[in-house]
Amino acid sequence: MTEDQTREREEYKRVKRMDQSTEEHEGSLAHGSESLPSYPASLLADTRLNGRGNEPVRVALMRQMQQTYGNRAVQRFLQRKARATAPASNTSSLAPVQRHAEPQAEKQFKESAQPEIDEQAQQAVAQVVAQGQGQKEGQQEDQATSVQTMRAPGSILAAQRAPIGGLAVQPQKKKSSLDKDAQDIVDYAQNTSIAIDERAKNTLQKILDKYYSSDKSNVARIEYDKDDPGLTTSWDPPASNPTPFMKVGDTFVNATTAAYFSRKVLQVGHEMQHVRQFKTKTPGLGPKFRHEREFLAFYWEATTPTMAGTGHDMSHKTRVDLIDAALGNLCCLPAGSYAAEKKALLDLRAQHDGKAGNDPTSPPTTCKG
After folding, report:
1. In the chain, N or C terminus with fewer CB closer than 10 Å?
2. Are 204 and 271 in contact (CB under 8 A)?
3. Reported pTM
4. How far apart are CA 46 and CA 125, in angstroms?
C-alpha cells in the first residue's frame, strides 16, 4: 500500500468517526419533543450574538470540526448532508446543529438534555463572541463562564434546578447591598443570644467606630434606656465644659436591620450633630436653643447622602418626614432665619414629595418639634 493510499484510508476513517458522532448527536435530537433538548432561550437571545440566532452556533461548530478533522472532511460532511436533505428541502444544505422544542421547553431544560451539549454550545458561543469583541474592543469573553450562567435566563427556578453532571444547581442568594463591616454590625444587632442592653450599647458604639470615628471620642459614654424611642443625646455639667453622652433603647437596636441600616447610620449622625453642638456650645446649651439645635441636626440628616456600603437610600416618604421635621423647627425661629437652608430643603422636598405612590403633602408653616 502506497503512502498516499495510507493517508487516504486514515482520512476515510476520521470522516466515518465524525459522521457517526454527528449522527448520534443528531439522533438524540430527533426522537420527539418528550426527549428533545434545546439550547436555552438566554443563549439564543444573547445580546452578544446581535440577533443572529442559531447561526453563530452552527458556524462555530463547523470551525471546530474543521480544526479537528480538516477542510476536506468538513466538505465531505456537508456534501453528504446536502444529498440527504435534498428531497425534503432545497432551501438549505446545512443541517442545523440544534432545534427548538415547544416554547415551554425554551424556559426549562428537559431532564434528558446532555451536559456535553451545554458545554458544546458554551464553547461555540464563547469562541464567536471572543473573536468579534477581540476585533472591536480588544477584549475577550471569559470562556470559563459556567453552563449555569448561559442556560438560566434571569432567575427561572426550573433552569436553576436543571441537572448538570448529576448535581442540582442551587438558587443563588441575592447579594446584599451592605459591605462586610455593615453586615457584621447588622448581624450583631440581630443576635438575640446577646442580652439586649449589651447589644443596644455595642451596636451604637460599632456605628460610631465605623462611621464617626473622628468624633466618637466626644461621646463620654453610652447608656441603655429600654424605653427610649430612638436615640437621645444629653450632656453633663459644668456648662463651661459640657460632657456629651448618648442613650439608646430597644427600638433602635431592633430596627438595625439590613433594610434600614443606612437610615440608622444617618440617625446616629443626627445625634452626633448634637454632640458637636454641646461640645462647642453652638448655638447654645439651654432650652432657648432647642429648636435651633434640632433644625440644624434634621437639616444635616435630611440632606446627607447615604453613606457608601450601608445599603439603599431611605424612602421618599422618610426623606420628606425628615425635611418637614427640620422645617417645623425652623418655623419656631425668628422669620428669615436660615433662608438659604430653607430654600434648599424646599427644593429637595419637591423631588421626593408624592413619589412612589405617596400622596402629595404640604410643608409645615407653623412651629413644630
Report:
1. N
2. no
3. 0.55
4. 10
In this structure, the number of other CB atoms found within 10 A of the CB of residue 181 comes to 14
Q: Residues 205-218: what's their mean pLDDT? A: 97
Residue 216 DSSP one-character state: G
Taking residue 173's Cβ as centre, other Cβ atoms within 10 Å add up to 6
C-alpha torsion 309→313→318→323, nearest 10 = 90
Q: Which residue has the cell 470522516?
A: 15
Q: What is the mean pLDDT of the chain?
A: 74
302 CB-near residues (< 8 Å, 6+ apart): 319, 322, 323, 325, 326, 345, 348
- Spatial separation of the C-alpha atoms in residues 141 and 162, rounded to whole Å: 24
CA neighbours within 13 Å on the CB side: how many for 251? 9
- For 1-5, 215-219, 323-327, which range has the lowest pLDDT when averaged over its residues? 1-5
H helix intervals, the chain:
3-27, 41-44, 55-69, 71-85, 103-107, 115-136, 147-151, 157-160, 180-189, 196-211, 250-254, 261-280, 290-303, 316-330, 339-352
